[in-house]
Amino acid sequence: MNTEINLAGIKMKNPVTVASGTFGYGREYSEFFDLSKLGAVITKGISYMPKYGNKPPRVCETTAGMMNAIGLENPGVEHFIDNDLPFLKKFDTAIIVNAFGGVGGTVQDYVNVCEVLNKLDIDGVELNLSCPNVCAGCMAFGTTYEGVKEITTACRKVLTDKPLIIKLTPNVTDITIPAKAAEEAGADAVSLINTFTAMAIDIETKRPKLGNNTGGLSGPAIKPIAVRMVYQVAQAVKIPILGLGGITTGEDVIEFMLAGATAISIGTGNFLEPETSIKAIEGIEQYMKRHNIEDINSIIGKVQMN
Predict the structure, then answer these.
(1) Is position 155 annotated as part of the catalytic site?
(2) Marked catalytic residue, from 60, 114, 131, 138
(3) Which fold has domain 5-299?
(4) How would DSSP label each residue in the chain?
(5) Residue 103's pLDDT is what?
(6) Which of 73, 85, 179, 245 is most buried, by the most CB atoms less than 10 A from its CB?
(7) Residues 105-135: pLDDT tens digits?
(8) Domain spans of the chain?
């Protein structure tokens, strides 16, 4: 029974990764399970220079999900190289670094961090063009064909030795348009979806529950929309898809793969149960046994539409 997949040149022992921003840099979760069991670890977002996040409160629960407005706080790429990468290298799993433009959020900011990452012993880069909780860069680029193509083209020129994955926002009318832009600009894969821009109000104080007023909605509530978007993008591009959005079980993983995802990321589920990703891997294996599936790759994109 084969669970190995190849995501745009990134070889993974199974299709399960952990979503950026929900797993830190692996240290906390390594206390609960062996990170080597994962297909890959996707790090919390890294920028060229350190970045402070949004003012608190930065997280609140919602029905069937949660909202966050962390604001991509991180210690910067040099700190990652000195402190976090050596720790992750101890494990037998692929390392994908999520990166973004930092405080300025300009094209050059994206290029700067990619130049550094290109020299590291990592397996791939996931470029964040989709965070809804920052004022500059990210979703500002990710909502248009031109913006996605500009950033992808610029980063592709300097990221010559690593697979490049573009993380897409669902906050668009047609998600296939930025996906096509990423493919045409040289991306090796796309990941989708990031969170939906959302808002929650405390009716007692009459104020938003998040210090940033709005935040990104994630969790099981968004899964059916994520599955639909993965299916749509799978019909529109030829590059692999990393699917995410509300995944908590092995059955969820299979659903995304049938829709067209080659691999998946688990995000909010990590907060509910630290071993969610491990249980999902076990669920995949159980599904394969029940259906006499020898190779997990055989189900990618095999949904039978009515």
Answers:
(1) no
(2) 131
(3) TIM Barrel (3.20.20)
(4) -B--EEETTEEESSSEEE-TTSSTTSHHHHTTS-GGGSSEEEPSPB-SS-B--PPSP-EEEETTEEEE-----B--HHHIIIIIHHHHTTSSSEEEEEE--TTT--HHHHHHHHHHHTTSS-SEEEEE---TT-SSSTHHHHTSHHHHHHHHHHHHHH--SS-EEEEPPS-SS-THHHHHHHHHTT-SEEEE--PEEE--EETTTTEESSTTS-EEEESGGGHHHHHHHHHHHHHH-SS-EEEESS--SHHHHHHHHHHT-SEEEE-THHHH-TTHHHHHHHHHHHHHHHTT-SBGGGGTT-----
(5) 74
(6) 245
(7) 788 999 999 999 999 999 999 999 975 544 4
(8) 5-299
